[in-house]
Write a structure and sequence with these properties.
This is Outer envelope pore protein 16-2, chloroplastic. About 70% of the residues lie in helices and about 0% in strands. It has five helices and no strands. The radius of gyration is 24 Å and the shape is globular.
Length: about 180
């Protein structure tokens, strides 16, 4: 039997509420904790984005398939409703596999971007003793380069464009954060 009233019961909702206070991870160092938490948060957002995009395109393709084929109209003038080809039959397994692969890739990309950026900004702040636009520019450039390298058939020009874009967006966000 347990003595005293020190038994603390926490719900999952309480854990989510305390996420910003202490976080889910304690990997022994604030840098590692920050990278892991950023990765997990952004990977979840990436997965949701990939699934919702796929659902949208499936709905659009379904609507186009229903409205574009005149042979789908019955003799009474009503429209036959049918599943799109990629939802029915054997292609369903292939579509599900493609969805899982694209969701995994997108989650990894979002998590990679957030983890690298968060880790770099934290590390640069600790190393330089200041959090300013310079840290944001360097972190954005390196993150942009890393993301460019995750795409297929990457050229040097694409890597440089992504580095410049990442630096510009990150610097602008840092500068605008002081205004708003």
């Amino acid at each position: 039997m347990m003595g005293g009233g020190n038994l603390e019961t926490r719900s999952l909702l309480d854990d989510f509420r305390s996420f910003d206070k202490g976080g889910f991870f304690d990997l022994g160092h604030p840098l590692l904790n920050r990278i892991a938490e950023s990765f997990v948060k952004a990977a979840g957002i990436g997965a949701i984005q990939a699934v919702s995009r796929e659902a949208y395109f499936t709905a659009v393709e379904s609507a186009r398939a229903d409205s574009s084929d005149p042979s789908e109209i019955t003799p009474g003038g009503a429209k036959k409703h049918r599943f799109p080809d990629h939802i029915k039959g054997e292609t369903n397994k292939k579509t599900l596999e493609a969805l899982v692969k694209s969701t995994g890739k997108e989650s990894l990309q979002w998590g990679l971007a957030a983890g690298i950026y968060s880790g770099l900004t934290y590390g640069l702040k600790e190393a330089r003793g200041a959090h300013d636009w310079k840290n944001s520019a360097v972190a954005g450039a390196i993150t942009g380069m890393a993301l460019a390298l995750t795409s297929e058939d990457t050229t040097h020009e694409q890597v440089m464009q992504c580095a410049i874009t990442g630096a510009a967006i990150s610097t602008a966000a840092n500068l605008l954060a002081g205004i708003f």
